[in-house]
Write the structure tokens for this entry.
Amino acid sequence: MFVAVMGYGTVGSGVVELLYKNHDSIVKKSMQESLELKYILDLRDFPDSPYQDKFIKDFNIILNDPEVKIVVETMGGITFAYDYVKKLLLSGKSVVTSNKELVAEKGYELLCIAKEKNVNFLFEASVGGGIPIIRPITQCLAANEIDEIAGILNGTTNYILTKMITEQASFENALKNAQALGYAEKDPTADVEGDDSCRKICILASLCFGKHVYPKDVHTEGITKISLSDVAYANSWGGVIKLIAAAKRLDNGKITVTVGPAFVQNHSQLANVDDVFNAILVRGDAIGDVVFYGRGAGKMPTASAVVADVIDAAKHTLKKKNFGWDNAEENYVIDYREQTAALYVRGETDDKEGVIKLLNGEIGAVRVLSLEGAPENELAIITNPATEGELRDKIENIPGFTPKSVIRITDY
Ligand code: HSE
């Protein structure tokens, strides 16, 4: 059986390396007589690559080669990836991708085509890099109704926050290091503004709750506004700030899905997930909480998940793997302002006692956080859980108080 790889960037080059490095055991596990790389599609030249004879620049060579049964898509982005993957599936080839944008935006359509053509469309590497999460949700946890799923899904931002927490590093320096280590997206805006985490939680929410969730329906905040004083207040509260992507099933059949910085208590399993590591907590009705942890970005960890999908696709050539979700439904994801949340709020006031009294009256007793060396006019509080939109409106309308930072509090 022959395989092609489209996109020889960080992940694609890792996939090629791994296919050669562990060739014999990969062939054995695939239950095929052979599993060989035939083409690498990339518009760039790689004159020093040991795989010189594999490089091509024309996608149609792969599309029209009946020997190629499985194609790996590690190009990223939507435009070309969507066009190519759709054509490949329609032509009866299985596709394995690490492209979370593609799955989050086009997953339902591509899964439908794969089903119709009886081929596989697999994307274990699209969430959590090397961490097994798609397969555990669809297979090992299949007996559960999933109530909630939440995690640290972006290695770049977790690396940055870790450096801010442990070394008081500036955001800019930490981001430069993450880029140098190959964790960040080509445009790191997608990492730091939360879009990458958003795409990943959309995939997980679609899988867990059964209907396609689109990124446009998810309230998403990044970490660019987090200051070292918020980090210090989180510490005085007894926790750390993490970029949390979360989805929860509600009693009325709808779901909440949000991405944003959040206070996580020190004893939480998510609190000590540092650097490029990711962790995903799944709350099922039979299993309770289960946490998946590992390297969420980087060349070989992500290649590990891609190649595992290649093996799985090779094993399921006659009978495709049966998983997926239904089409999206309007108003299925509720507005984040309607969800229940407790908030951390840091703001400025010249009348702390007066503002605390007003807050207690408007939103119930608040917990005041103290921080050595904080400016005289700074007030930081923790609220009780309430409807998020109402809570935010009431706080913003307290006379004499100017909120500077608002961050959700988690309960896991
Ligand atoms: N930029 C992503 C991250 C890569 O930092 O997690 C893996 O999806």
Summary: The two ends are 46 Å apart (CA to CA). The pocket of L-homoserine is lined by residues 129, 154-156, 183-185, 191, 196, 296-297 (CB under 6 Å). The mean pLDDT is 96. Residues 100-117 form the longest helix (18 residues).
